[in-house]
Amino acid sequence: MGQKFQYDESGGTFFYFLLSFLALILIPATFYYWPKKKKRDVKEDIKLCNCPPCMSKRDHLKRMEPWKGPKNFLIKLVIICGWIVLFFLAYKVSQFDYEMSNFDPYEILGIPLGASQSEIKKAYRKLSLILHPDKDTGNEKEFMKLTKAYQALTDDEARRNWEKYGNPDGPGAMSFGIALPSWIVEKENSVWVLGLYALVFMIALPTVVGMWWYRSIKYTGDQVLLDTTHLYFHYFNKTPNALIKRVIMILAASWEFDKKHNSEIEERQSDNQEVPQLIKKLPNLGEKNKEKPLCYLYSIKARALIHAHLSRIPLNPLTLEQDRRYVIGKCPFLINEQVNAVNELIILAYSRRIPRLPPIETIENCMKLSPMIVQGLWDFKSPLLQLPYINDENLKYFMSKKRQIKSLQQYAQLKGDERRNLLKSLSDEQYDDVMKVLGKMPYVDFQIQVEVMDDDNPNEVTAGAIVTVTVTLIRKDMSVLFGDELAKDTTEITENGGIEDAKESTGDGANETVVKRPAWLKQKKGGKKTKKSKPVNKQANNVAPKSKTEDSPKPAATKKKDASASSKHKEHKKDEDEETDETDESDVESAEHNDKSSGDEDANKSNEDDDQEWEKFQKIRGRERSLEGRSKISHTVHCPYYPFDKQEYWWTYICDRKSRTLLTAPYHITSLVDKEVVHLKFTAPHWPRLYTFTVCLRSDSYLGFDQQKEIKLDVKEAPAEITEHPQWEFGDSEEEDPAETNDRESEYATDEDLPDE
User: Fold this and answer.
1) How far is residue 212's CA from residue 117's CA, in Å, rounded to a whole number?
2) In a 3-state reduction of DSSP, which class is residue 113?
3) Please, are residues 417 and 376 in contact by the beta-carbon 8 Å criterion?
4) Which CATH architecture has domain 445-472+505-541+584-716?
5) Least enclosed by CB within 10 Å: which of 234, 388, 469, 594?
6) GO BP, one example (predicted)?
7) What are phi and psi of 616, to 5 degrees?
8) For 155-174, what is each residue's pLDDT tens digit?
């Protein structure tokens, strides 16, 4: 049989192409682009702060998207029209398949299989009188099917082919259809088809890909210009010990604020008058610095806007206020890039690629700047100013002779009457806003555990070992401290807002934690203790008194007393004999039980191995989960002076305060909703002695919520290196002792437990 290829003449199979193509585009477009309207929660509306800065911020966010409503309506309209077309095409395809699959001439004529010619003609005449288009009951489509069925059965050859092959034409050539309409290859339409191909594949597609590629190579993964990252590397390498104002100066020099690198920046004629006036209000701005690009006009303007933001100086809402919102909105992402840049410089300094090592204060100053930007507050100001309606006048009552309230945590722990008395000048509605904001602020339980994973003794730290510090963060709202006397007994609120446990940690810094195991492993471990410990103690308590009374000699002076008192003890002799008989029986039973327990020692050891393997599996699984994709949603921050909505993020790291060095890279926690577990790893010092390191937790959104805990590592001397490896020594003889073979297998098994480098 021959083969031939042909385009779709009837246009039926073309619907398959359109249906698949439209579904391929419409389904993901509906999922990603359908406007998702957040459900308005009445409880969330009640928790919103109604202070003037918050109200102004919400109004500004609404004005930022004036076309949001019409845009969402247009998107919905396009998607709905697409689905209507999709359902229409699906209906056409279903009808096409039904018509093709249900053509049966015998069924159309209403005659049985094998009917005679007279019966076929009679049935055709009867139905044609009904279905003919000229009749009132006529149906052209059905009449054509009737005619085709009659022709297929009146021709003897066509009838044989139909009964044998299911086709009146017989076994025809195999045809492969192309699901495209035939007008595509017609000569009069070739110019339009080629033009469409050229427009899509030669102009539009390369242009879109080129624009995407040109934009992507200019930015980092956090959408920060690569030129800005190079700028950070240069200046932090030039001045490793950077103070807060130096960090602000470097931040303001970011190329995101330059019109030449960012087309979103607006330059106005009014800047020539307003910016110099603003600079006069800001002391210690450093506008006379001659370093490039720190001395450029865009950098000085951005620096002035940042200083005005931190000082909460009101600006012109039509000019500088708009610029301030844009600059401040970019700052948290740029600060995170600064932290990464300083961390990379520290790594390069450790590898001797750069001469100077940035101290720990530089990277911490970068982290301190983030909550300052978010809250619009200098770091030397009181953290109580983060609450609404609180100003310098109210702070006088917090620092009276009776009490010294310096942190938000201390204020939250006061009784309700005392908290209200400190803010007598506020109305009830204003005080309610203060308590709403304070109650939603974070109260983080900061726990650490030090161990050496994948080691036989995880609590012993040897020189050069990989130390893993497990940081567990449990986040609650500050409202748990309102009138909670138990919280004061278990925790201590420091002046800087840190939370310290009342329990003292051990000398080696390893905090004891309970490792949860499955129920079946708990039963195995508990059964082992009852079998092994109780019978031994029982036997020792019974045997010792017996041997003492029988074998110890008696003095002569006591014999008379024993004889005179023998009558008194005769009554108890039977009881003692019964007790000794019971003890003998218990000794026999305990001996048999010990034999059984000694026979089960291998099984108990295997249970211990199962427990250890389960703990290792849980730790490895926890490390794998920490490497998975992280969410960016945690808790909304109260930040009325920050122009956008902000989520709570945290940094945690380990440092050495004595040498002012960073031991681990700062881990950015972006999904602390209720609980988060982070594993920080570093190499133990190579000199055996007692070391003191600090585990730090810093907030990028709130001032006064930083915490730190000290860990003490008693570093032991590392064991001597193994120079001989019995498992690598192969004897000359072909036969080996089975004991040696088992030893080699056990040695190979221990190699699998070595930590991965």
Assistant:
1) 72
2) coil
3) no
4) Sandwich (2.60)
5) 234
6) post-translational protein targeting to endoplasmic reticulum membrane
7) -65, -40
8) 777 777 777 766 666 665 55
The answer to whether 448 and 472 are in contact (CB under 8 A) is yes
Q: Which two tokens stand for residue 563?
A: 């004889």
- Under DSSP, the state recorded for 636 is B
Cα 635 from chain centroid?
14
Give the strand pairing for 466-477 and 675-683: antiparallel
Q: What angle do CA 565, 571, 572 make, to 5 degrees?
A: 90
d(CA 488, CA 8): 81
Average pLDDT over residues 315-327: 94
Query: Cβ contacts of residue 475 below 8 Å, gap of 6+?
Result: 442, 443, 444, 445, 635, 672, 673, 674, 675, 676
- Tell the burial category of 236 from Cβ atoms under 10 Å away from its Cβ (0-12, 13-18, 19+): buried
Burial class (CB in 10 A: 0-12, 13-18, 19+), 465: buried
Report the alpha-carbon angle 91-97-100, nearest 5: 140
> SS in 3 state form for 673-692?
CCEEEEEEEEECCCCCCEEE
**DSSP, res 225:** B
- pLDDT greater than 50 at residue 268: yes
User: How confident is the model over 145-158, as a mean pLDDT?
Assistant: 79
Dihedral class, residue 483 (left if φ above 0, else alpha if ψ from -120 to 50, else beta):
left
Q: How confident is the model at residue 609 (pLDDT cuts 50, 70, 90)?
A: low
Contact call for residues 642 and 374 (beta carbons, < 8 A): yes
The better pLDDT of the pair 41, 213 is held by 213
Q: Which is more confident, 527 or 82? A: 82
For 564-587, write each residue's pLDDT tens digit.
444 444 444 444 454 445 444 445
CB 555, CB 592: distance < 8 Å: no
End-to-end CA distance of the chain: 65
d(CA 289, CA 297): 12
- Rounded mean pLDDT of 704-733? 71
Residue percentage of the chain with pLDDT more than 90: 39
* 358: helix, strand or coil: coil
Higher-confidence residue of 505 and 475: namely 475
Task: Note the residue count of the chain.
Answer: 757
Q: How far apart are CA 735 and CA 431, in angstroms?
A: 88
> Is 662 in contact with 676 (CB distance < 8 Å)?
no
Q: Residue 717: name the closest of 502, 527, 513, 460 by CA.
A: 460
